[in-house]
Amino acid sequence: MNLIELNQVSISHVQGSERNTVVHDVSLTVKAGECFGLVGPSGCGKSTLLWALAGLNPNWSGSINMLGQPLTAGKVFSGDLRRRVQMVFQDPYASLHPKHRLRRALSEPLKLLGYQDIDDRLSEGFKQVGLAENMIDRYPHQLSGGQRQRVAIIRALLLEPKLLLLDEPTSALDMSVQAEILNLLNDLKEKRDLTMVMVSHDPEVVDYMCDHAVTMKAGRIDTEKFYN
Amino acid sequence: MTNNSSLVRVKNLKIGLEDGTELVKGINFSMGHERVALVGESGSGKSLTARSLMGLLPGSLLVQANQFELLGETVLSYSQRQWNKLRGKQVAMVLQDPKYALNPTQNIGRQVAESLVLHQSLAKKIRIEKVEYMLDAVGLPNPAQLCKMYPHQLSGGMGQRVMLAMALINDPQFLIADEPTSALDHAVRDQVLELISSLVEERNMGLLLISHDLQQVADHCERVLVMYQGQLIDQLAASELSNASHPYTKTLWSCRPNIDKRGEALPILDRKQIASLTGGAVR
């Protein structure tokens, strides 16, 4: 089953009356259970593409089909899609609210969706990513970079997504911590039957992680590669 | 002057907070006119050690050492004025991210010339010539035009080259590069490292290269110092890295992902084992 289908998609950044098209005529498919890699130098449009897939940039044209549901250009995500697609951002220092303890930051979406057993889910999440449960009452600044990235992964997984979007999840981390996070992602992918789309500028990370990858260049797909 | 162990000599260097927490726990090392990598995870004290060699630690940190020599001088008790004479002239530093390290309000020419103005009295014409020569030496095109540009107009790789030009313009004897490539794109990293190590070799300088990526620096250095939680736990020649015996060095060496490791877990640190090892080594 194809989880994502893009057909002739162009994506622009709109600022006021200016429109700057960054991604041109991209067509690709991502199968369920796959780890899909987007590689390329900075400025090639890989993150822009990922942001559009996360529903954070509605300024696209062409056709996008996600989780079997066609998207409408110009509209933000609605319904189930908002839970089933989750994202982990590049900079673990900027992606957690500095003045909220982890418990508050992580339980917010769960409260919104009316879950009852929030504390159990949180402690289950902490166990899954290998963090001590007593860290839950800490502030983000009391964690190291690798621990924060784990928390960002918990946050994404709490809503039981089908698709996990990863925007350079390890490029702000040390080499040894990167190994731990990559192992964790591989582990989760297997256990939870996740599909992942991963953006990286490090071809070695993509070679190691992905089943299917495209290299982008100046907003277009340059090469496509399948790993067996 | 080319005596081979005269650049830095540090014995039992301790850097700590006022409440007694030790961040760097008594390390010993010395280096001459050679290229040395200082490797470790974030929080291991490698940047603190490097900054102490530049006299750039904040006043709230206490530095103690039995011996702390830089270019043959005991610099532990140097005043700011004495440091100012040394910094940028004989010892220079390249920082991690050119986006933050360069002054956004001054053009490149002025920033590169600043340490010339501070340390040498040259005629303006000669100064400009020197700046342009230096920008050319670090591989930047059109130096005259570049001098009028501002940092936000440069890419990360170019900014890092500008920073290198600033550091080398007074022909220092010793260069400290604090994660010079971490903020750069993967493709540019090797170029910048290559440039640093070739310039350093050309000028017969000493280089202390700080990094968390052991494989990447190994090609550009002769010797590697490995730090973990404030201790210097391993020292070895770069050529010996593939058969390192210390478990921490081994893991750092092999934890980089690549296509051959697909499907198997990457080696990660066994922190308990290392803690017991280093605990044993110190006491």
UniProtKB/TrEMBL annotation, chain A:
Q: This protein is called what? A: Glutathione import ATP-binding protein GsiA
| Species whose genome carries this gene | Marinomonas rhizomae
State what this protein does: Part of the ABC transporter complex GsiABCD involved in glutathione import. Responsible for energy coupling to the transport system.
Fetch the Gene3D superfamilies from UniProt: P-loop containing nucleotide triphosphate hydrolases (3.40.50.300)
Enzyme Commission code: 7.4.2.10
Q: Topology versus the membrane, per the UniProt entry?
A: Peripheral membrane protein
The subunit field of the Swiss-Prot or TrEMBL record says: The complex is composed of two ATP-binding proteins (GsiA), two transmembrane proteins (GsiC and GsiD) and a solute-binding protein (GsiB).
Q: Which family does it belong to?
A: Belongs to the ABC transporter superfamily. Glutathione importer (TC 3.A.1.5.11) family.
Q: Which PANTHER family match?
A: GLUTATHIONE IMPORT ATP-BINDING PROTEIN GSIA, TRANSPORT ATP-BINDING PROTEIN
Q: Which CDD domains match?
A: ABC_NikE_OppD_transporters
**Any idea where this protein resides?**
Cell inner membrane; Membrane
Gene Ontology molecular functions: ATP binding; ATP hydrolysis activity
Where is each ABC transporter domain found?
A: 4-227
Q: Which reaction does it catalyse?
A: glutathione(out) + ATP + H2O = glutathione(in) + ADP + phosphate + H(+)
Q: Which domain of life is it from?
A: Bacteria
Record's keyword terms, sorted: ATP-binding, Cell inner membrane, Cell membrane, Membrane, Nucleotide-binding, Translocase, Transport
**What Pfam families does the entry give?**
ABC_tran
The Gene Ontology biological process annotation of the record reads: transmembrane transport
| Record-level GO cellular component terms | plasma membrane
Automatic annotation (TrEMBL), chain B:
Q: PROSITE patterns, per this entry? A: ABC_TRANSPORTER_2 (PS50893)
Query: Which class of enzymes does this protein belong to?
Result: translocase
Keyword annotations: ATP-binding, Cell membrane, Membrane, Nucleotide-binding, Transport
Question: What is a single Pfam family found in this protein's UniProt entry?
Answer: ABC_tran
CDD domains the UniProt entry points to: ABC_NikE_OppD_transporters
Q: Where in the cell is it found?
A: Cell inner membrane
According to its UniProt record, which reaction does this protein catalyse?
a dipeptide(out) + ATP + H2O = a dipeptide(in) + ADP + phosphate + H(+)
Name a GO molecular-function annotation.
Answer: ATP binding
Membrane topology, as annotated: Peripheral membrane protein
Where would I find the ABC transporter domain in this sequence? Answer: 8-254
Q: Which GO terms describe its cellular component?
A: plasma membrane
- The record's EC number reads 7.4.2.9
Q: Which domain of life is it from?
A: Bacteria
Q: Which family does it belong to?
A: Belongs to the ABC transporter superfamily.
Tell me the protein's name: ABC-type dipeptide transporter
Per the record, the major location class is membrane
Organism whose genome encodes this protein: Marinomonas rhizomae
Does this entry carry the keyword RNA-binding? no
The record's annotation in InterPro entries points to: AAA+_ATPase (IPR003593), ABC_Ni/Peptide_Import (IPR050388), ABC_transporter-like_ATP-bd (IPR003439), P-loop_NTPase (IPR027417)
